[in-house]
Task: structure prediction
Amino acid sequence: MRPIIIAVDGPAGSGKSSVCKGCAEKLGWRYLDTGAMYRAMTWAVLEAGIDPLNIDSVIAFAKTINIMSGLDPQSPSIHVDGKDVSGSIREARVTDSVSAVSAIPQIRELLVQQQRDEARKALQSGTGIVVEGRDITTVVLPNAQLKVFLTASAEVRALRRAKEEAGAAFASQQAVTETQIALQRRDHLDSTRAASPLKQAPDASEIDTSDLTLAEVIQEVVNRAQAVTQ
Result:
């Protein structure tokens, strides 16, 4: 199968990370989590004591740091100025502020260029890449050979995210309810922001993961990738 770019968008909790890592691992390709890049930027802003709502300060600071993404689907990583922040970017404070930081057009411009560069380098090296985010099919890589929009019901997404945050196979109903409220807020912010809002590209195929296993979704994406390369 010839190397291509698989671009995957979708709201939080739709299964993007697990599906994209699984596809990249199955195909032996690279994997890029663009959301982790925005989280890393947000973490760095907070660590520097900068108010995420102070746009001018955030932009000025962003130009002084280096964010590097690890592209191995088996052990994806994200570094800020050489420091591994893979765990730190999942902190609640980062989750609460990432929408504000990622909504700044200059921040998106800065990171989008890095994302395009990684996709280009992958193909130049003869390796495909699976890229996930919220504006990959519409803004970052509109010419990707395969575009997928993953979705799931609000209830399913909340349950998945609550389990993930609890690090357990189960989550309390209170945790699920609180998570659903948080996801609805994030969905609203991401879909209504002026810069690169979350939306389904006209030529992206939708996959509802609500009633599918992870293995089934991965196989479906791989099947569609194989179909476009024939």
Notes: The beta strands are 5-9, 30-33, 67-69, 78-80, 83-84, 129-133, 146-151, 205-208. The first strand starts at residue 5 and ends at 9. The chain has one domain: 5-219.
